[in-house]
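Input chain follows. Return structure tokens only.
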Amino acid sequence: MSPATRRIVLDVLKPHEPDVLEFAEAVADCEGVESANVTLVETDRKVQNLKLTVEGSAIETDAVEETIETLGGSIHSVDQVVCGDRLVEQAETPQDR
């Protein structure tokens, strides 16, 4: 059995509709998701770029991806993944300075 996914941070591109509130609520309703944080990074005439942070005890990543696609969005990149028995915060290293 693989370790549970507890956090995933995604760069998402979506159309203006649905709005970010509806988008966040739909993602938060996915299996294993306890919370979803959507930050609007950029808006242009046709699309919005979002930073989507999802946390839970065992996130069903396929369900999150399917929900994003159903809402008309696409994942540009997976920017962070935390797996295991607990959340681990990123430690600062010399490269971060």
